[in-house]
Amino acid sequence: VSYQNTYFKGSNVSEDDWRDIIGMLEVMGENQTATWTSARARSVIDVEQWLRHLAVMSLFGNSESGINTGNNDDYAMYRGLNDPRFILVYHDLDSVLGLGSLGSGGGIFGATTCCASGDTIGINNAMNFFMHHPEIEPLYYRTLQDLIDGPFSGAEFNPAVDQVFADFPQLAGTATTVKNYMAARRLTVAALIEG
Question: What is the DSSP letter of 10?
Answer without folding.
Answer: S
